[in-house]
Amino acid sequence: MSIANFFANQEIFVTGASGFIGKGLIEKILRSCPNVAAVYVLLRPKKGKCIEDRLDGILNSKLFERLREEQPQNLQKVHPIAGDCTELGLGISEADLVRLQNVNIIYHSAASVRFDDPLRDAILMNTRGTYELIKIAETLKHLKVFMHVSTTYCYPNRRVVEEKFYPPYADWRTTIKLAETYSTESLNILNLKYSDFQPNTYTFTKSLAEQIIKEYKDRLPLVIFRPSIVVSSIEDPVPGWVDNFNGPIGMLVACGIGIFRTSCGEPNIVSDFVPVDIVVRAMLIATYRKGTEESHKQDPKMEVINCAASKMCPITTGEVIEIGTKVIKETPFEKTLWVPGGSITRCPVWNFIRFVTLHVLVAILADFALRFTNTKPFLLKLQRRIYAATLALHLFVTTEWDFRYDNFYALNSFVPESEVDQFGFLQYTNVDYEQFFRMGIRGARVFLLNEPPECSQGALTRMKIYKALHFLIKLVGSVLILRCLGRFLYAKFYATFV
Length: 498
Description:
alpha/beta
């Protein structure tokens, strides 16, 4: 059976449909598995928008342009389900539960990926939300696959992470009970001790969710899919598609605008990130593999899959910054405020000094100038967010993990030869990183900054002006420093010998 035929006439339920992976997954299913019966997506009203409006906003986004041109009728197969992963029963009504009774495949990708979430909020969303969906899945008589999207960073204290279950940091039932019983403030006090000093609430609560999956894996057709850092697409549906500022693309955008000039980390560690379309393809193959498990009884079960690629095509953090800075200077953004630059340093003291001088002081001066143009100041507030983000990510830019990925690598062997172009992913492992970042920055320009895909002549001209001013400021600064140093040395010499 081909992969596309396996998905034919199947009903699919997706949580996290408004997220990066969720959007890419829905688009790929509708375009490459055109005979799918229905795709139900869990959405909650947000910012005054009802779920129908939110779904329209997703389906009318630039991501779905190719699908709207090639197979517009398939957009009618997506149906919103009102709910919230932080509520009991996911907040799904009885009527909607009846609509879901014929669901064959569940993708649970909903999660709060904020590292600074209060422990209580993260438990209710990431841990209890998984349990509530498991209980719903137990009522579905036609369920073939339940895929839980986790993360390779669930166990950050382990430098080698294999495709298997690990002992829990805490009991998931007790943890859910604590979140239901105690206040946010009380749990924040217990956070570090209770979570065994995990770096953030995200990794801790996602690891607990895996324990739920482990407990139910013999009762339901469950698969844990662990992607590493998910970045812009390499091909599907277009090269460079991205919908958030997380990971290296966000760092390069901030660098390209000129507001991010220093970071504390280890430039020689190998960064592990995977393009979103490779993640989605692997998810579909793993679903096909699990759904046709009877025909693969001679093979070991793939209950846990580490979707990591650092060994396939390694690149260091320092190389990411070097290549990205080069590309951005050649194709600057329209919103660029200054010359892209800066670097990564191992010294936290030096990084703090550079942050205060190059980030904070410059932001204060710029915001002061903006007040005279009747523009609302924003740079200092933005720099606070950047600083908080760099603190939260410190462990992940100073540590290198060894993610074992035998199950992930083997997935490609299950792709029928006729569908390699549609679903295979090993053909993309020999990445030309300069070209990849060019497309990623182009995607950031289009999908994040709402700029034209090509760099304008005006942006190139402004970059030349910024470079000249940057050189002039450095020259004047160097002269002033040398002059002050000369006066100091002269005073010392004069006091000693005269």
